[in-house]
Design brief:
318 residues, Rossmann fold, 6-stranded mixed sheet, 2 domains, 10 helices, alpha/beta, 43% helix
Length: 318
């Protein structure tokens, strides 16, 4: 919870002052009674009753004061609501190392399943596009609200070639920066890039990430794989295993340079969970809603309650 006019909260200092005054008043009342009544007659002349009821109205008034001061500060609550306009480019690494089966059924297979989880959780109002990248980057599906087209395009991805991460970021950022919404405003956008790391082709990935960040297009990187991944490569007539360990360092820096976030997933369930989280995060925005009326209403109810109790028990308001 936050406050639109937090300076008003300074008035809360009146609450402990009120409590201090009330305690002093009660002590003075007891001293005055003791001065005029002998101890043996105190029980009959100045009994302690009505006990807790004596203080109940004042407690209600103090709580009412707190509620009304908070209401004057205009409290606000934050809630997540679906975005009405947005775009996300899914950028999938389809280099040869993505054929590694250290993640079941393979790194690429797990990535495709994660993409499908993303499409299942992203609001239908968000445009989603798909890029594959190896030695170059290719648009497989331009951003669209028809998420079935993106899901169908996922079936065409195959693992081969090298890894041009920077080229993929550059292409995705260019496509997203050209999108426009109502009144030709820039559409809030983001890139979700999945790879096992180690860019070895194309443009500088850090420069591409900084350029995307300058366009307010964060890159959310997902590093998929383990340190023990291998792929089979022909050496002469025989296949030999070649290590392709996960290298998340570059992906983390890309996220930092673009003001995005980085994630690491070592199995299919983890990467799907990350994509579901990203779908929720990118498909919703936090909005502040003023809840002044609730606090003001509570303050008034407490004022009425304190007054009713005081009138009923003591025949006076205070």
């Amino acid at each position: 919870m936050s406050f639109a006019v937090p300076v008003v909260l300074i008035a809360l200092i009146a609450v402990p002052l009120l409590i201090w005054w009330y305690i002093g008043y009660q002590a003075q009342r007891k001293r005055a009674a003791a001065a005029f009544v002998q101890p043996k007659l105190a029980e009959s002349v100045a009994p302690e009753r009505p006990g807790w009821r004596r203080h109940a109205p004042m407690v209600a008034f103090a709580l009412a004061l707190i509620a009304l001061i908070l209401a004057a500060a205009r409290p606000q609550s934050s809630a997540a609501v679906p975005v009405n306009e947005g775009a996300v480019m899914l950028a999938n690494d389809v280099s040869s190392s993505m054929a590694s089966t250290d993640v079941k059924p393979s790194r690429l297979g797990a990535a495709l399943n994660a993409d499908r989880a993303f499409l299942a959780h992203i609001p239908s109002t968000v445009r989603v596009g798909l890029i594959e990248f190896t030695v170059a980057a290719t648009v497989v599906q331009s951003p669209t609200t028809d998420h079935r087209l993106v899901a169908n395009a996922l079936g065409n991805l195959r693992a081969y070639g090298h890894t041009a991460i920077g080229t993929a970021v550059q292409l995705a950022a260019r496509i997203l920066s050209d999108l426009r919404g109502p009144q030709s405003k820039h559409v809030p956008s983001a890139i979700v890039l999945l790879s096992d790391g180690g860019s070895d082709a194309g443009v500088d990935p850090y420069a591409a990430a900084r350029a995307a960040g300058a366009e307010h297009i964060p890159v959310y990187t997902v590093a998929l794989g383990t340190a023990h991944g291998t792929i089979e490569v022909y050496h002469g007539k025989h296949e030999v295993p070649v290590p392709v360990p996960l290298d998340p360092t570059e992906l983390r820096q890309i996220a930092v340079q673009s003001k995005g976030r980085s994630f690491t997933a070592g199995d299919a369930a983890a990467v799907s969970a990350v994509y579901q989280h990203l779908a929720e995060q990118l498909g919703h925005k936090r909005v502040k809603r003023e809840i002044t009326a609730s606090f003001a209403g509570a303050g008034l109810v407490l004022l009425v309650l304190g007054s009713v109790l005081s009138l009923r028990w003591f025949g006076r308001l205070v």
